[in-house]
């Protein structure tokens, strides 16, 4: 294995599996934040302290094996090119913070890219497990098993009263962030999201964009996650999130049914107009591309478009981001050049799909 294996393909192997409710819930994620008792937390540590902690963790992970990681690869941020790190962010394998601001950061990636262990991010260790579709229970089981394995080799910073100690107060307790990535185009089209999203925040959950905190919700993709961990068990957090996600799935399906029943012609026009733009444009920016891809994905899910698989849309959502475009071009591109290459890539990929 090498870095190139993780950079060559936009779709991670785990994304190719069929998932529960996968037409609306694209993925489930469990992230566990952990720190080591004997080292200063990364946000306060010096570069020397961060390096020592990083080496300690790397050696501990390298000296043992677990089936959850398989043939894993350790990648060091200091040794990677800026655009390569950007691609890992675009694939959701590392966080923007690890790519841009970490001191002596690293990531251990499983072969199928479903598991990543970030080192010296905001915390010493951030365990992330991803699965296709709506499956928080099994995702948590995998993350918990991996956490137990790591805790048998490392001494975590833990307080009997407060739980796991983390850099950010909102993570203290379980240190767990459970989240799902949802595609909610019908609720967006019918303008119901303006009412629903504030209500979700009042339930102690947070709605973010496709790349997490501070990112924009492009392509009607929304990341729904718990906001607080202190005072709640892992099961409480998962059950709270599951309840809200199930309601969102019902509301999205109802909105899709309403569009088909009452606005069928307008929806058909919207879906096929977006497909036409993607199939024939020579310049397209990332915002329009993701919006058009969202329309086409909705058309596929509703049976309005045949001959294109939903997985191709997932692939194009990632491969048309700046990091991948510049990797394929093998040079730094201006925004205008990226818009041109993005349009070309989408046209050619859709043409190839139709040919097959």
UniProtKB/TrEMBL annotation:
Appears to be allosterically activated by the binding of pArg-containing polypeptides to the pArg-binding pocket localized in the C-terminal domain of McsB. Residues 24-255 form the Phosphagen kinase C-terminal domain. It catalyses: L-arginyl-[protein] + ATP = N(omega)-phospho-L-arginyl-[protein] + ADP + H(+). Keywords: Allosteric enzyme, ATP-binding, Kinase, Nucleotide-binding, Transferase. It is an enzyme of class 2 (transferase). Its EC number is 2.7.14.1. GO terms for biological process: phosphocreatine biosynthetic process. One of its GO terms (molecular function) is creatine kinase activity. ATP binds at residues 27-31, 92, 126, 177-181, 208-213. It holds the Pfam family ATP-gua_Ptrans. InterPro entries: Arg_Kinase (IPR023660), ATP-guanido_PTrfase (IPR000749), ATP-guanido_PTrfase_AS (IPR022415), ATP-guanido_PTrfase_cat (IPR022414), Gln_synth/guanido_kin_cat_dom (IPR014746). It comes from the Bacteria. GO terms for cellular component: extracellular space. A motif (RDXXRA motif of the pArg binding pocket involved in allosteric regulation) lies at residues 338-343. Belongs to the ATP:guanido phosphotransferase family. Catalyzes the specific phosphorylation of arginine residues in a large number of proteins. Is part of the bacterial stress response system. Protein arginine phosphorylation has a physiologically important role and is involved in the regulation of many critical cellular processes, such as protein homeostasis, motility, competence, and stringent and stress responses, by regulating gene expression and protein activity. This is Protein-arginine kinase. It comes from Alkalicoccobacillus plakortidis. The lineage of its organism: Bacteria, Bacillati, Bacillota, Bacilli, Bacillales. The gene is mcsB.
